[in-house]
Amino acid sequence: MQTVENIKKIYIDSSIAEGKVVHSLLERVSADVRLEWVDDPREILEQYMHAGPVVNKTDLLVYRWPAKFLSSCPGSDGMVCCQYFVINFGIGCLFDCHYCYLQSFLNHPLMSIFGNLEDLFAELDERTRNRNFHFRIGTGEYTDSLALEPLTALSTHLVEYFAAHPNATLELKTKSSNVDTLLDLDHNGHTVVAWSLNPPEVIAAVEDGTANLDERLAAAARVQAAGYKLAFHLDPLIYFEGWEAAYHGLIDRIFSVLDPDRVAWISTGSFRYAPGLKEAIQARFPDDELTRAEMVAGPDGKQRYFKSIREQMFRSIKEKIESVDPALFLYLCMETRRMWDRVFGFVPSSGKNLDALFDQRRLHMEARRPTGRPQS
Q1: What does the alpha-carbon distance between residue 54 and residue 315 come to, in Å, rounded to a whole number?
Q2: What is the domain extent for residue 320?
Q3: The CATH number of the domain where 306 resides is what?
Q4: Is the pTM of this model over 0.90?
Q5: Across residues 139-156, what is the average pLDDT?
Q6: Is residue 288 part of a domain?
Q7: What is the pLDDT of residue 53?
Q8: CA distance 139 to 146
């Protein structure tokens, strides 16, 4: 797995020198990493931009984010979406998954973390205070939630914040095994630790630098033992010869080591890409076969497998998961109303309606198991 030891140089915005993230970083950074304090982070970004479209995994910029941190999940035109919110605390990823949309979506030349955590907390307070609504808030849209955790402890601070907020659930989504900093926290049952999973052969072929399947499941078992809820995202599903046996085997492996009662939700979504990503994948990974499959444009303009293939994969995985535990909550990510009907036999009438299903699962889990840290 690609680790924070890969980082050789860190630029730090002088204006956030007293912030929690910078303090955590300075406590953890190794002596052989070059630190450079900067007064204008924009100059650093411009330098890297002028250097060309290099995917840099060895340098890191920690700076003050000047805009909003919290946004609604962008969803996709013509697709069923839920009322999910996203915290953007960084841009760029230590890992290098071939299918990652960041390759074409972002014009940002340097892996970055936003260090003004205090501003984020103030924004969250304003958004969630005195609201009769349960917020689901994730952090894995523009970066991996835990890839840099051993260096920044940023997610540690988030877990501690959310522990005191009963009307919000934090989801940390990762392809890493970096959970050590989370294990002793009093999370109060308000954090879900989630893994994006694929069969071992898919991980080896197209998820460069990530933890392997055994490492991810071992990490999930450790946070489960620490009282956290879990989630899994079988996304993107990759269609290949033998896919069904591979994904069924993946589901068997998940539940051979983990308790279904501790799994808050499972999502599944097919491999898809927006205009521009195909060229980026082919340029960076010329031997990759992802973009050689026959695909068709959906209502949102993204290329997807044919409907018949997607339906077959979704239905097969649904039936396999139901054979493990019919109470497990499974949903489709970035899919059409017609696909929901074909796979589940119903269509959520709105994002609010789908969100209610998440709430049912949350309340079911809270009724069956105690939350917070296990008692010693």
Answers
A1: 40
A2: 64-368
A3: 3.80.30.30
A4: yes
A5: 94
A6: yes
A7: 59
A8: 9
